[in-house]
Write a structure and sequence with these properties.
The protein is globular. It has 758 residues and is an alpha/beta fold. Helix 4 packs antiparallel against helix 5, helix 6 (186-198) crosses helix 7 and helix 6 crosses helix 8. The chain is built from 22 helices and 32 strands.
Amino acid sequence: MPLALDVLLPLPLPALTYLPPLQGAEARPGQRVVVPWQGGVRVGVVAGQRMVDAGRGLELRHVLHVFDGTEWLTPAALQALGRMARAAGVPPGLVLATLNPPGLHPELAHGVRLRAEAAGVLEEVAPGESLPLERWLDAAAVPGKALEFLRQQGLVDERGVERPRVRRALVPLGEPDEGLEGARREPQRRALERLLELGSVESGAELAREAGVSDSSVRSLVARGYAGYAELPVEEPPLPAPPLTEESLPEPAPEHVPPEGDGALVGGSRRERLAALAPRLAADLAAGRSVLLLAPEQAQATATASLLATRFPVALLTGDASEAQRARLWRELARGGPQLLVGTYLALLAPLPALGRVVLLDAGSPAYKLQAGARLLLPKAARQLAGAAGAAVTYLDLAAGPELAAWVPPGARRALPLPRLRLHLADLNDGGNWPVHPDLQRTLAQVRERGRQAVLLAPRRGFSGAFGCPDCGWQAPCPNCDLTLRYHRERSRLLCHQCGHEERPPDRCPDCGGTELGPLRGAGTQWIASQLARSLQGFPVYRYDKDQRDDLAPLLAGEPGVVVGTLALLSLPPLPLLSLVGVTHFDTHLAAADFRAEEEATRTLLRLVELGGERRPLVVVQTHAPEHELLAALTAPEPEAALEGLLGRQLERRQRFGYPPFSTLAKLQFTARDRGSALAAAQRAADALVTAGALESELLGPASAPVERLRGRFVFNVLLRAADEARLEALLAELPRGYPGAKLLIDVDPQDVGALLD
């Protein structure tokens, strides 16, 4: 029985089976290989080896090339990748494409050699083509369909290797001699001498600038054979490195250091949490164990790496690095000893030797949910990786949410003191100035008088959430979505923030003919910023949202001002003079159509406070519900105990309604151009699941999405609620494959059950 290789390509496919290469290095699991794929070749990763029967072996193609002996993915990474795919209900190739390790898309040189027996066959499949036989040539010379047919008949040999990375440069071809003597040749001599110093330049124009001569002198130098263009190897790029920082990590109290095994650290500031983690990292590295620290966002990964680099050698891997930099770092990690790697999800499969710990920074952040590809939930993926590697998992966060409380028992949790919130509640039920309450307006006036800084969180971008008629209540609708259009006053346009539809505001109400049309309640960043610009009389007002990101360099340099923005504000570094944080409509965060709304509102408030760095700004929260239990907990004399009590009530509600962490969810989303097709597809899936044994408690729906029509498609959801991952995998396996006229998208562990999946 022949040996076969299962190879994963970065495509939405299961592993494909190939035979080992006919010659050259042996292909082992984890290595990169070049394989035939459709009319060309692709790079994949060997996922495993197995024996196949002799008849099956005759049908398989051979691997064409094995890259050097570097283990591109570790055994733990391969095992975890398979677990991630099964848990997400997607092919493992899609997980590989989503996590996007470097080195899977190099430029390849694909060569073919047609055997002598191919002469007659070639005339049949590619009439008129005259190709040499028994000689290597570029595969592009063979028509794609002909190549595929010749492969099936075993009439072609192939090879595929990575093209060397080269650059075209001007290089010296000789030394100065008597041919360059004399005043007329002096510029050419100077140019050649400078070129000999530099070794090479990108162009003649660059050499002319370097030598201070004319372009014509350099052209003459080339024409006379003293210099010429050549292809040189591209030098390896520098490794990505965290920027230097003057900050340092304080010494933590021993009782705050996370446990050696699985555990969590909550409370404090990001800097304090990293300081408490540092002794545990030092112990891991001293014991020969590598550590992977995952951050939900690129900016946080970079800032974390900078702080840790003041104590440890740190590697950094984010989307800021080029493909070449990432590939070099990948090779360095595989060849090195114990490493400390900080990164985003792109670092999840990195070949760290002897992985001993995975750390999740801001473990409950919604940014850990990938919105495309395999739609992985990174904390679950990190646990799967740690389980495969036998590594510990440490969670760091502002406060313990329900999921973190389920992942880590209370005895393995360490708690730093929460930042003391100076919280003032502005009751919107009292009326007053809209959208900035008089209390907030007075506090902003003090910020201006004292030359300080303020941050205001708005619930949306644009001017207002709706534009319409105050007489009859008509609101401008989107023609493609069951939503009202948002008003952008600066452009005098109505926009849909879902589908991108854009139109001019009407002059008259189409329902009643009224002419007093205008923005309705639901203030966005434009409305709030424009009101502040009037009331604060020349005080700098900035905007920071998807539509407009003003240059905040003056604020970061310590100049006074106020910035109005959406949740994009949370990605900012600390502001040195921040004395006020305002939340203009807190109820929007509490009323989100998701069972995690309260937890995420807590996180938002605490993260806003962190924008003050070591300072503790006053927080003014505008709300219609000042008595809400979350606000009561945050204003309690002992907020840690109050939040722990709130966490207990959240867990009780989650358990009562069967939500995570007491179940595993999957959202099945069906979309179609007409409502009937979307509903019929959702009903077909629900019926199939019931027939397969799904319990009434495991199946919710079909039901229309919170917004039934989006981007011209009708949306219906079926929610699966299983006791554990194995049961969920079994239910997903029973779904029908095709849905005429409709499209199915699956989202396991949805973080927003009402959102449209792209």
